[in-house]
Amino acid sequence: MTGRRWTVALPPGLALPTSNHRHGHPAKLGAAMRVVKDAAILTTRSARIPTMTGPVRLVAEFRPPAGTRARVVRDTHNLAPAVKAAIDGAVKAGALRDDDDQHVTAVEFHPGPAIDRAGGQLLLHLDPPEHAQDEVDRLRGIAAGAAALIAALPGGADALDLHDADVKISAALLRALRDALTDPGDDPR
Question: Which pTM value belongs to this model?
Answer without folding.
Answer: 0.65
